[in-house]
Design brief:
The protein is mainly α. The protein has eight helices and three strands.
Length: 158
């Protein structure tokens, strides 16, 4: 039986090689990092996006949906179902603002507040999970301002 050999065009443009894609590394790191959170978030009954919402609310409770969305760089179409699931799980409540009926205020419930204590060790567990020396972690943390600049520039393209 004769198999036809697949001939791909020769790719000599270095910019189009996967190994030269900065964005691929960001995508891969983000996807793998979110996966690494599963063993710590699953026992709490929350997903990574829900964890992010909780982080925002643990810093400051009773925030408008739009403020949480801005902080997490998520649009309303993403925020609404996320918050609905969290409300159904008993982690948050959403109420209309007394000042502006169009705005909804998100507040932690007792259950949402209680998760704060259970989540205290997640950052340390994550550091250990990636098994990086402290010096490497410090080096990564130094990239945060650069990543923040990149995020701000990318937000302008949306």
């Amino acid at each position: 039986m004769h198999r036809e050999r697949y001939n791909s065009p020769v790719m000599d443009n270095e910019q189009l090689k996967l190994e030269n894609q900065f964005c691929f590394r960001l995508y891969s790191a983000a996807r793998l990092m979110m996966g690494a959170y599963h063993p710590y978030l699953d026992p709490l009954g929350i997903t990574y996006p829900q964890y992010l919402v909780l982080l925002v609310l643990w810093e400051q409770d009773k925030q408008p949906v739009c403020d949480i969305g801005k902080r997490l760089i998520l649009d309303t179409n993403t925020m609404t179902p996320l918050l609905q699931r969290m409300e159904k799980a008993g982690l948050i409540t959403r109420t209309r603002s007394k000042e502006d009926a169009r705005r909804h205020i998100v507040s932690l419930t007792r259950q949402g507040k209680a998760l704060y204590e259970q989540a205290q060790n997640i950052p340390e567990h994550m550091r250990k999970a990636v098994m990086m020396p402290e010096s490497d972690v410090e080096e990564l943390l130094q990239t945060i301002p650069t990543l923040d600049k990149l995020i701000e520039e990318l937000k302008k393209t949306q």
